[in-house]
């Protein structure tokens, strides 16, 4: 779903507008305690979406994971309890004649649920166990936080290289930034092509990449790969097809070559290609 949204900006715009409006309404009404249980379902749903969609994000801590887990747990808890005596459910709803003595209304607002204590206890226990499982499972999947070596995908940039080829004196390949800090681009300062013996056939340094022709960059997503002041900037979530024309590529012998990308931090990514 996320990939579909980032590849269709017009749909993404509407999705973000609708999400923001719903989040604002749910947040306001949950604070006021108006239709508390209905709003708690909204809190649970919004938080679960954040958890599963971006729970791996967090530059210095597990930001989105914490928000998602806290919101899902809070939504479930508030559904069981309803609002207190200072909520609008208690202060306002009893004054609305059309809503008085409606037995179903308690499932959307506040007050004691029409369930036996034993049944309510089982629901609470099952929900708590399910939330505990989701907490541990997502923490492990996203961060290896339960066992194994802890990792944080938001600390270091990671670029995937695909579809590398040389045709008609042009080197083309696709770069896709899949990990790293969301507020920090991958600053590419080197694109190097080597033959099977390790000899450098083509080398584009930081200065050359800062002047990379925009016409040779075909961006696929909203986040744009673009030349910066001192490098080629690759933001998180950006995916683009890059094409390099150079005289050194005109009469290359057939064989295996290695494409190497270098980040300003010293991290490198490479892929093999055959010509």
Task: Give an overview of the whole structure.
The structure is a single chain. The chain contains seven helices and ten strands. The radius of gyration is 27 Å and the shape is elongated. The two termini are 36 Å apart. The chain is an alpha+beta fold and 275 residues long. Strands 3, 4, 6, 7, 9 and 10 form a six-stranded antiparallel β-sheet that branches. The protein has a four-stranded antiparallel β-sheet with strand order 1-2-8-5, with no helix packed on it. The protein has helices at residues 2-7, 9-32, 36-54, 63-81, 88-91, 117-143, 206-210, and strands spanning 158-167, 170-179, 186-195, 200-204, 217-219, 226-227, 232-234, 239-245, 256-263, 268-274. Strand 3 (186-195) and strand 4 form a beta hairpin. The longest helix has 27 residues, at 117-143.
């Amino acid at each position: 779903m996320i990939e579909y949204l980032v590849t269709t900006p017009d749909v993404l715009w509407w999705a973000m507008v609708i999400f923001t409006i719903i989040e604002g309404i749910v947040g306001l009404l949950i604070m006021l305690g108006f239709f508390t249980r209905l709003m708690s379902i909204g809190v649970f749903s919004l938080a679960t979406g954040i958890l599963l969609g971006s729970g791996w994000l967090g530059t210095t801590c597990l930001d989105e994971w914490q928000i998602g887990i806290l919101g899902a747990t809070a939504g479930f808890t508030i559904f069981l309890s309803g609002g207190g005596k200072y909520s609008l459910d208690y202060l306002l709803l009893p004054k609305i004649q059309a809503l008085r003595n409606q037995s179903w209304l308690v499932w959307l607002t506040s007050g004691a649920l029409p369930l036996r204590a034993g049944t309510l206890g089982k629901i609470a226990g099952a929900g708590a166990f399910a939330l505990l499982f989701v907490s541990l499972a997502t923490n492990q999947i996203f961060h290896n936080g339960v066992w194994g070596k802890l990792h944080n995908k938001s600390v270091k940039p990671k670029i995937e290289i695909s579809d590398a080829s040389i045709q008609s004196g042009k080197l083309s390949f696709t770069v896709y930034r899949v990990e790293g800090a969301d507020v920090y681009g991958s600053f590419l300062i080197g694109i190097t092509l080597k033959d099977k013996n390790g000899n450098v056939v083509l080398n584009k340094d930081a200065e050359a990449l800062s002047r990379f022709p925009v016409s040779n960059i075909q961006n696929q997503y909203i986040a744009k790969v673009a030349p910066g002041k001192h490098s080629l900037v690759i933001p998180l979530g950006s995916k683009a097809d890059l094409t390099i024309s150079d005289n050194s590529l005109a009469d290359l012998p057939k064989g295996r070559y290695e494409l190497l990308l270098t980040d300003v931090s010293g991290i490198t990514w490479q892929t093999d290609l055959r010509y």
